[in-house]
Amino acid sequence: MPLLPTLTLGFTVFRPETAPFAAKAMAGHDLIVLEEPRTPGFEEMLADELDVDEYLMLTDFEFPEYAKAQCRTLQSIHAAGAAVLQVHPWMDELVGIHEFFAAGNGPGDIPTGGRPWAVYSRERDWSAKLLAFYRAAGKWDFDAILEAVNDFAMADAAKISDMDKDRAAALKDVLPHNGRTYVECGSIHHDMVFLMVRTLGHGQVRTIHLMEEVCLARYGRRRLIPPGDALTFRHLLGAPRDPAREKLLAARAMVYNRLMEKDETFESASEYPHMDAEATVLQIVGGLGLEQCRELFGRIRHLGVRESLALVLQSSQ
Questions:
Q1: Rounded to two decimals, what is the model's pTM?
Q2: Residue at 293 is within a domain
Q3: Which of 51, 249, 311, 317 is least buried, going by the fewest C-beta atoms within 10 A?
Q4: Which residue, among 200, 221, 308, has the nearest Cα to 256 in the 3D structure?
Q5: Rounded to an integer, what distance in angstroms lies between the CA atom of residue 236 and that of residue 162?
């Protein structure tokens, strides 16, 4: 008899339209593991002893509307008997490093060879590549920008890989021997599949993309992958280096970032505003060659997202 899955990896993008699908995916699990560091007031919020809005004020959440909807879901799941944990050891360590620096210490005070140093040094390298990209983006040298994008993608892949190894090791310590567990994963963290299969064995792990039914129905794909993520995935998976392909993905990512809506909520007639906006932008950039990206980026680099998208759509008519 085949083993029934005991662990569900739920891959998500943290948008309000995804929250109902997260609630549906979490149902029926005995343990919910969130991809977030420990936050003040979490246990009190789960027990409905702390108002959700007050809880959200204690921490600067990157996606507050999504967080609010998820808190309501977690309260309901917790009241029904499921356990809920925050497990993200990398971010917990990073918070500790920030507090260490706030107390007047510096990088030289972190003992080398330990986990705090490993996290700090990886974050330092990642930040340096991000700053290099910002510097390149402030100048008009498209090829230099693309080189900086690819350098950052490699640093991002290395950081994601380390984060996932840390989280998988921590999950091994908290997974129950019986029952079903749901593990929340950001969409880029696909190393978690291999890492958890290695821990639990084949047949014990299943993966879902939270909006895959909608995405399949509307676009014939399980999920939409932006070009920047596709570039990072290449480095995560150890794909053979292909400078031409990497340069094209970086160029498409630069155009994508100028066209894709970044606000968590925005006016739209769509039931799934971010998904539909992303599908539109991916259709545009997916057909662009390198020189077309160069020309288009030059036209829209100083425009706002909505103005840029309107210009591109008007030009295509």
A1: 0.92
A2: yes
A3: 317
A4: 308
A5: 11
